[in-house]
Structure formats: C-alpha cells, structure tokens
C-alpha cells in the first residue's frame, strides 16, 4: 500500500514527485490559493508512455478535479494500461502537495540562530546587501544598467571590478525588460576584458523578459534552482511589475516575488521627473528596499571618459556610506570599459557636487596640505559654492583633519594619519 506515497523534491515553490516503482513522475507549479481551494498546474509523465497530462490545472482536494484527471489518464493509456491505481496515486499526490504547500507558506525560525555579524551582511560592500532588495537609480543614460552589470560580474567572479572586493561569490542572473542580449552582452564583454576576467567567465545567465516578474516567478524558480543563482538583477523597476508603477500594489507584487525567489536582488530604477527626488513610481520602493543608491554622471562631448558619482540614500542595517566617485574609461580600440575609483569625480559638475557632503568635498581635493582658501577654491572650481564659514567649522570639528602651523601665520590643513 505504501508504493503510492511519493518521493518529493522541493524546487523553490514548485514540487517534483516520483513513484520509482510505478515509473511515474509529476511536477506541480504555479501554486496559489483561490476561492475553489489550492490550485496548481500539473505535468505528469510515465516512463513508458511519456507525457500523460501537461499543464493541466488541478484543484487539490477536489474530488471532481481529481476524477477528471484520472479519467483523462486512463483514456490515454487504454491500449496497454499500466498496473497503477490512478485514483489512489492522484489522491496521494493531492494530499502530499496540499500539506507541503500549507507548511511551506509559513516557516517558524529562531532568530538566535540568525544573529550574523552586520559587518558581513554585504555581498559587495557597500552596494549589495546580502539577502535583501537593493536599488540603484538614476536618470536615463546615467549608466545605472552598466554599473549594475559590473557589480554583478564582480560578485559572480569574486574579483574587484568597481574598486571594492566582494565578500561572497554567487552566480548571477540578469532579468532584462529594456534592452537586448546583444547590448548587455557587449557591455559584459567590455567589462570582462577591461577587468582581465576573460579566463574566469564562460556563462553570464540572462533572460529577456516580456511578462511581469510576478507572472514569470514560477519559471524563474526552476532556472534559479538549476543554475544555483543567488543574485538577480532586475532591469528595470518600471517594467518588471507588468502594471502601473505608481501603484503600491504593483510594487508589492514585485517585492513579494523577489522574496519568493529567495535571492539577493539588485533592482535598477529610474529617477523621478523632478530629478533627485527618489525612485520613480510608488513610494513602496523606498519602504520595501534595504539599500538604495543614486547614480549621477557628467560627460564632456567627444571624451572617452565620464565622471560618475553614486550617493547612498538609504540603509536599514548601518549608517549611510559616504558617496563614491568614479572615472569610467571607455576604449573602443581595446573594446574595454574600466571603472576607476576617483573621489574628485564627485566635483565634476555642480549637479554632482550638490549631492556630496562638505566632508566629501574636502576629501575630494585635500590630497596634500592646503590652506583654507586653497581648499575653498579647489571645491568651487566647477561652480559648486561652499560657504567659507561652513568649511572652516567642518575642518575644525572633524578629527580626520589636522591644522598645521606655518611661519607666515596662515595655517595649512591636512589629513591625520
């Protein structure tokens, strides 16, 4: 009697059942609670007969639904019916899946066993918090997709690509609603070549998505399981929901799907029409994410380098990180793109400098001992205005700066060692 109890393997929110002695396998996906009960999509195969039913909707616990399924299987195998009590097998399938679905929806944990050191909760400090929703946003053409891909390649290879060393190495999946595999492939090639990673990268998982993330989440679970994916990049927030991005429910559906996938995620967002006001769409993005960064760039026409600045907007696990500047170098001759840390990039334009703190502006120019006037002139070089009184107070108050007496009575300022 026990041969009708299946062997079960859980694949994300899907279930794969096997009856080895009976040569039967079943896969149940797209599980959901409806007014009729718990419903799932069933694929059932027999080793000799192949696919018996594919993509059939089964209401677990419904005798009429099970009876209809059994009848269709018997019709398909009537010429040489296998010695299987299909009524008992389908009943066992329904009971097993219903119990697993109900117990898997809620899992009671002990937080004592999850008290990890906050210093190691980043996959790539400070940009990617482990097991959370991270966001990078900016205006169109600001390079946010390029930068996100560089972060993903760094985590995938375990190598420094953007000037920070990843603390973990995970397989990455890029979900794309905006561009083409050729565009992202070209970017990936330039980053990989520029970072010297050609020998360690032979697969960059990518899916060109058309439906909303909540609609494709069950299929993604299989990809994530099969490829051992632990980081998903979503490009972009506006299109991933498949609905109105200004509605809270659209964002809740996306974030619920990301939690269901049980991966670390990096979501690429657009800036609001009133630039610098946050992620475009519902304010739920700011509520549901754990780590938010804003990206700005400045480029001179015809130049092969651009200045980029990325500003920390939100962190749930620590104080905000200081802003990070980059010079991004594009070489068509070498077919490379290189991200080089450069604090002075924070002052590349008044728009970029406006996002930096006074301390960040000082650090960007104070590379050697300077007078207050020299520091002020260097900061204001690109049109960014800093009040002299504010500058003097900041230099005096912060311990990282030291006043150096001189013989002419005009002290110099330097950085403490």
Keywords:
single chain, 417 residues, alpha/beta, 9-stranded mixed sheet, 5-stranded antiparallel sheet, 12 helices, 18 strands, 31% helix
Q: On the 0-100 scale, what is the average pLDDT?
A: 89
Spell out the helices and strands N to C. EEEEEHHEEEHEHEHEHHEHEEEEHHHHEE
Largest sheet: 9 strands, mixed
Termini separation comes to 77 Å
Percent in strands: 25-35%
Give the tally of β-strands: 18
Structural class: alpha/beta
The parts where pLDDT drops under 50 for at least 5 residues are none
Question: What share of the residues lie within helices?
Answer: 25-40%
What's the arrangement of strands in the largest beta sheet?
10-9-11-12-8-13-14-15-16
Note the total helix count.
Answer: 12
How much is the radius of gyration in Å? 28 Å
Summarize the SSE layout with pairings.
Layout: E1 7-11, E2 14-19, E3 24-34, E4 37-46, E5 50-59, H1 63-76, H2 86-105, E6 122-124, E7 128-129, E8 133-138, H3 144-157, E9 171-176, H4 181-194, E10 206-208, H5 213-227, E11 229-235, H6 237-240, H7 248-261, E12 264-270, H8 284-288, E13 291-299, E14 305-315, E15 324-331, E16 336-341, H9 350-353, H10 358-365, H11 372-379, H12 388-397, E17 401-404, E18 412-415
Parallel strand pairs: 8-12, 8-13, 9-10, 9-11, 11-12
Antiparallel strand pairs: 1-2, 2-3, 3-4, 4-5, 6-7, 13-14, 14-15, 15-16, 17-18
Helix pairs in contact: 1-2, 3-4, 5-7, 10-11
């Amino acid at each position: 009697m026990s041969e009708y109890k299946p062997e079960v393997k859980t694949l994300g929110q899907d279930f794969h059942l096997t009856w080895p002695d009976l040569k039967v396998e079943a896969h149940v996906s797209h599980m959901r609670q409806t007014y009729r009960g718990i419903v799932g999509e069933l694929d059932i195969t027999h080793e000799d007969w192949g696919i018996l039913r594919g993509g059939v909707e089964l209401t677990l616990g419904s005798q009429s639904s099970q009876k209809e399924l059994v009848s269709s299987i018997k019709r398909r195998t009537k010429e040489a019916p296998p010695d299987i009590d299909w009524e008992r097998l389908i009943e066992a399938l329904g009971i097993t899946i219903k119990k697993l679905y109900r117990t898997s929806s809620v899992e009671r944990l002990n937080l004592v066993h999850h008290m990890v050191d906050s210093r190691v909760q980043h996959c790539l400090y400070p940009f990617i918090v482990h097991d959370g929703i991270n966001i990078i946003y900016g205006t169109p053409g600001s390079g946010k997709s390029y930068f996100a891909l560089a972060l993903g390649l760094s985590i995938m290879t375990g190598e420094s690509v953007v000037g920070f060393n990843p603390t973990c190495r995970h397989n990455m999946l890029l979900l794309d609603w905006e561009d083409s595999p050729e565009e992202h492939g070209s970017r990936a090639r330039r980053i990989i070549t520029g970072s010297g990673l050609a020998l360690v990268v032979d697969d960059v998982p990518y899916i060109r998505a058309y439906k909303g993330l909540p609609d494709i989440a069950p299929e993604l679970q299989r990809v994530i399981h099969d490829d051992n994916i632990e980081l998903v990049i979503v490009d972009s927030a506006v299109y991933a929901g498949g609905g109105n991005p200004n509605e809270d429910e659209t964002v809740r559906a996306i974030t619920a799907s990301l939690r269901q996938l049980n991966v670390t995620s990096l979501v690429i967002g657009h800036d609001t029409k009133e630039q610098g006001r946050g992620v475009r769409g519902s304010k739920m993005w700011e509520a549901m994410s754990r780590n938010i960064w804003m990206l700005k760039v400045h480029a001179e026409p015809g130049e092969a380098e651009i200045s980029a600045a990325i500003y920390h907007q939100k962190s749930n696990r620590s104080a905000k990180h200081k802003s990070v500047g980059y010079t991004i170098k594009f070489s068509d001759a070498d077919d490379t793109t290189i991200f080089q840390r450069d604090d002075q990039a924070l002052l590349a334009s008044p728009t970029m400098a406006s996002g930096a703190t006074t301390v960040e502006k000082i650090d960007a120019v104070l590379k050697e001992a300077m007078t207050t006037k020299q520091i002020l002139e260097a900061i204001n070089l690109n049109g960014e205005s800093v009040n002299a009184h504010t500058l003097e107070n900041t230099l005096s108050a912060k311990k990282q700066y030291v006043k150096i007496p001189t013989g002419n009575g005009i002290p110099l300022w330097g950085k403490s060692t």
